[in-house]
Amino acid sequence: MLKINDLNVHYGVIHALKGISIEVNEGEIVSLIGANGAGKTTLLHAISGLIKSSSGNIVFNGEDITKKSARDIVILGLTQVPEGRRIFSGMSVEENLLMGAFLRKDKAEIQKDLENVYSKFPRLKERLKQQAQTLSGGEQQMLAMGRALMAKPKILLLDEPSMGLSPLLVKEIFNIIQEINRQGTTILLVEQNAKMALAIANRAYVIETGNIVLSGSGKELADSEEVKKAYLGG
Fold it and tell me: Residue 159 and residue 189: Cα distance in Å, rounded?
């Protein structure tokens, strides 16, 4: 479904991604783990069209999207939930969700999808007229995920969804990620909580200083001594 081939990204003289190759098959949850500054967010931004790669290519559903605009990539069915939520703080919950459907033409379906989002995130329904900036951190994360779902993505890119959340909320967010996946959305998850990320992943990759250094099933990487030592406190 999503295939990244020998992707290189530079920020000026800094070589941020060094020949990255990964793939995400339809229906999977694929986790990408690594330390701060390893290149996780850079990779998601390159896939989403927010930054341009120096070389290599990105293929989504058989179509090369390497040079496509971020807008066109969303239309094709690839949506990102950014690190730090990036909600529209001065808008209501409902307005934020409708912004997620901004590029859609199927107006009749939008209301149905709003109800679907509210069924996944009941707290958003309770607060739909409330300004987004007044929500708790966990509620803002739910709003960011709900807004992305309103674009009707085939694949959802999640950037650090557990950041800054209490352990109880982290568990809830990860349960919702699995539910979204079960309902047919493929997931590429970038996450510093390696234990949780590997526990729900079909497959996973470890990125260090812009290189993929390990790959395997979620269980294989969770059982790896190298991964335990570096990321799981083993």
Answer: 6
Residue 126 scores a pLDDT above 60: yes
Q: Strand, coil or helix: what is 186?
A: strand
Whole-model pTM? 0.90
Would the pLDDT of 137 be above 60?
Answer: yes
Q: In sequence order, which residues have a C-beta less than 8 Å from that of residue 144 and are 6 or more positions away?
A: 81, 82, 85, 86, 87
Which pLDDT value is given to residue 205?
97
Dihedral over alpha carbons 63, 98, 126, 164 (to 10 degrees): 50
pLDDT class of 23 with cuts at 50, 70, 90: very high
Average pLDDT, the chain: 90
Alpha carbon 27 to its chain centroid, in Å, reads 14
Whether residue 27 is predicted with pLDDT greater than 70 in this model: the reply is: yes
Query: What is the C-alpha separation between 111 and 117, in angstroms, rounded?
Result: 10
Would you call 9 helix, strand, or coil by DSSP?
A: strand
Using DSSP's 3-state secondary structure scheme, residue 158 falls into strand
For residue 139, give every residue at least 6 positions away whose Cβ sits within 8 Å of its Cβ, in sequence order, or none: 123, 124, 127
CA–CA distances in Å: residue 15 to residues 65, 159, 219: 21, 21, 31
d(CA 219, CA 199): 7
**Residue 234's pLDDT is what?**
57
Task: Quickly count: other Cβ atoms within 10 Å of residue 127's Cβ.
Answer: 20
Rounded to an integer, what distance in angstroms lies between the CA atom of residue 107 and that of residue 112? 10
Find the helix or strand (DSSP H, E) in which 98 lies.
Answer: helix 93-100
Pair type for strands 203-208 and 29-33: parallel
